[in-house]
Amino acid sequence: AQSIEDLTQNALQELSQIDNPDELEQWRVRILGRRGELTGILRGLAQLDLEERRQVGALGNQAKAALEEGLEKRGRDISEARLAQVADLERIDVTLPGRPVATGRLHPTTQVLREITDAFVAMGFSIVEGPEVEWDHYNFEMLNIPQGHPARDMWNTLWVDYPMLLRTHTSPMQARVMESVQPPVRVIVPGKCYRYEATDATHEWHFYQVEGLAVDEGITFADLKGTLYEFARRLFGTERKVRFRCDYFPFVEPGVDMSIDCFSCSGWIEIMGAGMVHPRVLAGVGYDPEKYTGFAFGLGPERIAMLKYGIDDIRHFYSNDLRFLRQF
Ligand SMILES: CNC(=O)COc1cccc(Nc2cc(Cl)ccn2)c1
Q1: pTM of the prediction?
Q2: Is any ligand 1 atom within 6 A of the Cβ of residue 213?
Q3: β-bridge mates for residue 207, sequence order
Q4: Total Cβ atoms within 10 A of residue 320
Q5: From ligand 1's centre to the CA of 202, what distance in Å?
Q6: What is the pLDDT of residues 178-220, one digit of tens each?
Q7: pLDDT tens sequence across 71-101
Q8: Looking at residue 317, what is its pLDDT?
Q9: Annotated catalytic sites, by residue?
């Protein structure tokens, strides 16, 4: 009887020290298991006489019940403690704001290119694209810039392998269009261009250009002004005013540049160049300059974006800095 008492006290004492399910299971096997200490004592009952067996048997059952109850309670305490601990660690605060979903975005150049081309598509122009690697023939000669002409100095050219080059503007594609279709022509050519220039805040060696061309019978300078005025208002707001001033490009005559009134200051901001297609260019593509006239224009989308968004350095566009790109 004493040994049952001692065993029970010791076992309950040990139980109160156990704080994890594995030790608890080891305790259960050692005390209450088929070969456990208590089970061993109760098996020894057979040697006792009737009276003693009844006494010790009752004691044994009480001890077994107490130990099993202790085991049950300890098990509950351990799992509650563990749950409380986990709950603290893995608690989800449902009132927290959701995580923002990272969305992709179009490059600022692409956004402006789309705005520009949309404006002209709405006015009846079609979009065509052409090769970035070009021949001197289309990039210069077809545009009234013959070999050795000083006008070539307006473009620092990147030669792939003379007379093959990286186009310095998108005009060669305009020439390609004209030599392949008869008027009326109304096309917009967006695309990448290249110049052999030191890069600085306003010059990149690779950049985009958008050029337009309209050739038909009876096109006048008024059509040029009206079309570009409408374009400026679509892009920079209907309250915009425009100003045309004389400018020289070898492929047009007369040539102009167009400025808009500054929205935040009292000055004029040049946004593009244009002019009436030079008769030599028309003749060069097989059009009759006596029958057909046309206007053409060109602009730089990065420059437009810089004006529109107040960007101070063109090199931001292609330096792949997400701090810049994420703003668009
Ligand atoms: C960034 N570009 C500018 O400042 C000015 O670009 C311009 C100006 C005037 C005309 C053209 N293009 C053109 C094309 C042909 Cl095929 C015939 C005549 N002209 C581009």
Answers
A1: 0.73
A2: yes
A3: 193
A4: 9
A5: 19
A6: 999 999 999 999 999 999 989 999 999 999 999 999 999 999 9
A7: 999 999 999 988 888 888 888 888 989 888 8
A8: 97
A9: 155, 169, 195, 209, 252, 296
